[in-house]
Write a structure and sequence with these properties.
Length: about 120
Amino acid sequence: MTTTTTSRPRPAAVVLTPSAEERVAKLMAQAPEDAIGVKLSTPRRGCSGLAYSVDYVTEESPMDEKIETPGGVFYIDAASVLYLIGSTMDWQEDDFTAGFVFNNPNAKGACGCGESFTV
């Protein structure tokens, strides 16, 4: 008797809303020539400890999470994945501000200005 094990693809650590996917597409349309995608990381910064950082990436790291979006490849820094599992990333714009907004169930607190968070 042979047993067959099937594995299903695991869900992405971060879900991008359609608005965030559109923004990634716009960023990639304006990207430097050597950019292969956009990468989310959580460097130590700010008064709460960690901050969200979205930057162009020019080289793929095999440890990073890779998410294919209609507008380009979105990477999540391998060292940041544990802080971001289950998060939703949105792009919001109004008359005064524009930026990525994160709904992160792992964040236990944030600074008053919203620039950094703690887990």
